[in-house]
User: Which sequence fits this backbone?
């Protein structure tokens, strides 16, 4: 996975620079999401790496499926990725682009994992607290993991705030072992 992200990064950064210059971040976001969805399609995946299909044919096929939703720059990016045999990393390109876009817009993405289903007012209060702590707008993705036993765990970037019962029990176990 890390290898695919490493390969995808220059393409995502190039698309991001083009999007910022042309002031079309949202448009590029949709284009890359569409290209990623096409690359993940089972029938297209069968063609990737098939010796009977040239890289040019693969690039043209992806462009044809996307139709007029692809700009000239996006078509160039797709052909470049096809020529470099990098079509498989289109989902990672889209993912990295979204991270760059969120950073540009001053938004942090947070994964909130709760032991139990949270009420909307609880989520809003937690998001407000996180926005004050990080001094940025927070976009939250909430999920439930009963293995946490109680409390919540918040992941923002590479930072984890673990206020779960399970996390506290694990910390206590580590402390007791040392």
Assistant:
């Amino acid at each position: 996975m890390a290898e695919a992200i490493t390969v995808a990064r220059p393409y995502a950064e190039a698309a991001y620079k083009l999007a910022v210059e042309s002031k079309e971040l949202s448009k590029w976001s949709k284009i890359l999401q569409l290209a990623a969805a096409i690359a993940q399609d089972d029938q297209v995946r069968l063609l990737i790496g098939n010796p009977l299909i040239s890289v040019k044919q693969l690039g043209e096929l992806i462009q044809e499926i996307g139709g007029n939703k692809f700009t000239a720059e996006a078509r160039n990016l797709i052909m470049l990725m096809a020529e470099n045999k990098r079509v498989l990393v289109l989902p990672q390109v889209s993912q990295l682009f979204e991270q760059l876009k969120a950073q540009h817009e001053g938004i942090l993405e947070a994964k909130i994992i709760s032991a139990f289903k949270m009420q909307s007012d609880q989520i809003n209060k937690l998001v407000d607290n996180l926005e004050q702590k990080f001094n940025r707008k927070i976009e939250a993705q909430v999920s439930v993991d009963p293995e946490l036993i109680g409390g919540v765990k918040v992941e923002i970037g590479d930072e984890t705030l673990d206020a779960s019962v399970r996390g506290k029990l694990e910390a206590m176990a580590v402390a007791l072992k040392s």
Summary: Strands lie at 107-114, 137-144, 151-156, 159-164. The CA atoms of residues 114 and 144 lie 5 Å apart.
